[in-house]
Amino acid sequence: GQQLNQSPQSMFIQEGEDVSMNCTSSSIFNTWLWYKQDPGEGPVLLIALYKAGELTSNGRLTAQFGITRKDSFLNISASIPSDVGIYFCAGQPLKGGKLIFGQGTELSVKP
Amino acid sequence: DSGVTQTPKHLITATGQRVTLRCSPRSGDLSVYWYQQSLDQGLQFLIQYYNGEERAKGNILERFSAQQFPDLHSELNLSSLELGDSALYFCASSVASSRNYGYTFGSGTRLTVV
What share of chain A is helix, strand, coil (3-state, %, to 5)? Predict the structure, then answer.
């Protein structure tokens, strides 16, 4: 089935550093979403993107819908310990249907 | 509270047994999705229901089955359990709309098979 390539798989950073992760697809998506999963909890929606080139911020988080419609990135600025968790990208293919999820990026922040 | 309710939160059972996981979607959401997340793994899509009917199927084992009832709650049945079935099982729901607003996830059921 269709897959998203999410990278990196894991990141270990120092508190205060900026973080960047991305997702790519071999086909065009019409929606990109970014979720965060805290340990032992369900994923929570952070940012939703609906137009190519769209850049959206949510506090220290910024995400962009790539202009080719085949990729998206998420940046976290000035990381803090509570940013720890797994970040998932998700996209909806142009033809519709269920969301396709990336494999996740596990973020660890050292105080 | 996301509005998606999953019960039980934790379940410990022996190999060979059968369990039922329950999900109540967010009010107004017609679609329910089930996902399995094993340790250090991503979200593996199992099955989707929309307004009582199966809409999409993922890598769901034949030992697993699900249904969505008229009141829109859903149950995931896991039978002949094996050690490898130990995982977090998530239910998510979504509203029917021309724009995809994403899925709302429950807090999951942690299944441990011993």
Answer: 5, 55, 40
Q: Is B102 on the interface with A (CB under 8 A)?
A: yes
Residue B94's CB is within 10 A of a number of other CB atoms, namely 21
Q: Which residue has the tokens 């979200």?
A: B43
Residue A103, chain B, CB below 8 Å: the answer is: yes
Q: How far is A27 from chain B (nearest CA, A)?
A: 18
Nearest chain B residue (CA) to A88:
B42
d(CA A24, CA B18): 39
Distance CA A95, CA A9 (A): 28
Looking at CA atoms only, how far is residue B58 from chain A in angstroms? 9
What is the 3-class SS of A58-97, one letter each residue? ECCEEEEECCCCCEEEEEECCCCHHHCEEEEEEEEECCCC
pLDDT higher than 80, residue B40: no
Tell me if chain A has a CB within 8 Å of the CB of B100. Answer: yes
Asked if residues B84 and B66 have their Cβ atoms less than 8 Å apart, the reply is: no
Q: For A46-100, how does the pLDDT look when each residue is reduced to its tens digit (9 = 90+)?
A: 999 999 999 999 999 999 999 999 999 999 999 999 999 999 999 998 887 889 9
Tokens of B10: 């934790």
Q: Are B6 and B90 in contact (CB under 8 A)?
A: yes
